[in-house]
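Sanity check. The docking grid for EPU depends on where the pocket ends up, so I'm generating a full predicted complex first rather than guessing from homology. Inputs follow.
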Amino acid sequence: MGLQQNISLKAYNTFGIEAIAREFGTFSSSDDLASLVENHQPGDILILGGGSNILLTKNYDGLALKNEIKGIKVVYEDAHHIDVKVGAGENWHQFVLHCLKHNWAGVENLSLIPGNVGASPMQNIGAYGVEIKNVFYCLEAYSYADKKVFNFTVNDCEFGYRESVFKKKYKNQFVILNVTYRLNKQPKFTTSYGAIEEELNKMGVKELSIQSISQAVINIRTSKLPDPKLIGNAGSFFKNPSVPKEVYELLQSKFSSIVGYTNADGSVKLAAGWLIEQCGWKGFRKGDAGCYEKQALVLVNYGNAAGADIYQLSTEIIQSVKAKFGVELEREVNII
Ligand code: FAD
Ligand code: EPU
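Predicted complex below; grid placement will be based on this.
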């Protein structure tokens, strides 16, 4: 399919922000992609998955391309594992449901995360004690510069908390075409995240299964995260910031209810939602831009907010958290 001019991206981002792309197209293979990008600079191309982790702050004066590469295929199997190669344009939660149906374990804690497979390694998506790097095997990505496809192993991806090589040194240089996940035939349940145990008890679950964990995660998520179909949002707008242990202890002496979790290296990850709530933002609304009433880490568009309104609100939140706690919040959402 060719390119179209001046296309609204409102339906292509879960914030529901109106922004016009100078050019727009879709691709469903690496060959399609190669021909569409031939006469464009990598810095002027925006790859769209489900648009659930972007904030469009202005019209996009370049080429927006929606990845529609499909397919779910078993490529390896032994007594313990099953490797599944998935097209980047497949919906993430539909893939999770496919795994649950076949009893392939490993992604149940990541149920109901919006967006597509292609962005999952980009962000190293995570929830309820599991990150994509725990089930990642490899991926294939198209290089604009070399005009060919490269394979990336888990080490090549340099996964971190909501980070990968594709957001850092290879930013805007590769398009992820497909991802191969290594799933387990014998489940190793991760229920350490407090709320999961609580929800499983509430559900009356006697025997754990990947299906019951998935349902517990879905119940928790729907109780506090806004459904983008009803209220525009991109999930957590900021990362949870880490501080050295000494800083945490100092903060704790001043703010006894502060919420923090100790990292493997001894530093402490603070709950940004708590910091933001303490600054009085939870439930705040100015025009159509707001801070969600049930989860302060989520910024929302109640209807016709501009991307710049949401961005401005995020700047004010960063400033007030810095002033009260001396902690710098970093945006998690990709600002376009
Ligand atoms: P997009 O928003 O389309 O893209 C994100 C970035 O990746 C953009 O920079 C884009 O250019 C780039 N990109 C996308 N696809 C490709 C590709 N194939 N190749 C190269 N670059 C690409 N995230 C979590 O980690 N955990 C959560 O629990 C979570 N909960 C959420 C809840 C809600 C209600 C919402 C709205 C979002 C949530 N998110 C969560 C954030 C979001 O769902 C994830 O980051 C998701 O992986 C984004 O996928 P996407 O396809 O929508 O990416
Ligand atoms: N909290 C508050 N007030 C709030 C929100 C949170 O005090 O308004 C405190 C509570 O003490 C709560 C704690 O913060 O117990 C943690 O909150 P929650 O369990 O909701 O998780 P989070 O840290 O806010 C992170 C991820 C989510 C992921 C959940 C579950 C980040 C940036 N966010 O949120 O991911 O789903 O944990 O694992 O790490 C996303 O990335 O978009 C996303 C939604």
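Relevant for the grid: The pocket of flavin-adenine dinucleotide (ligand 1) is lined by residues 14, 46-54, 67, 88, 113-116, 118-120, 122-123, 125-127, 175-176, 225, 228, 233-235, 334 (CB under 6 Å).
Also worth noting: The domain at 72-184 is CATH 3.30.465.10 (Uridine Diphospho-n-acetylenolpyruvylglucosamine Reductase; domain 3).
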